[in-house]
Design goal:
It contains no helices and 11 strands. It is mainly β. The chain is globular, with a radius of gyration of 13 Å. It has one domain (5-93). The relative contact order is 0.27.
């Protein structure tokens, strides 16, 4: 996935990569890359939950992170530019500060 732009005002997710935020029992997506995308205005700009496997990780690099929405969303979790859950296998991953895993948002 490349060259996409999400600009919203207070939407929950900019990019949601993987199905587990909503569908916890589904298998991980695998392979591919997320590169050269831009997100701004969402509470969680990039949410990675159920993406990649040990044999076929997802690559997430060279993306642009704008400002998040102000405040909290999804049961009071503070806004964050990048959320990655333990069930995801991403390599390489963009150097950003990670937030807590989200589920049932």
């Amino acid at each position: 996935m490349s060259g996409n732009r999400v600009s919203c005002s207070g939407c929950t997710f900019g990019f949601n990569i993987g199905p587990h935020t909503r569908w916890i029992d589904s298998p991980n997506i695998f392979g591919g890359s997320v590169v050269g995308n831009t997100a701004a205005g969402a509470y969680f700009l990039f949410n990675v939950n159920g993406a990649g496997t040990a044999d076929s990780p997802i690559a997430i690099v060279n993306n642009t992170f704008g400002s998040t929405a102000s405040g909290t969303a999804c049961n009071g979790i503070p806004a964050s530019s990048f959320v990655m859950c333990n069930d995801s296998v991403v390599s390489p991953v963009q150097a950003v500060s990670l937030s807590a895993c989200l589920s049932n948002c």
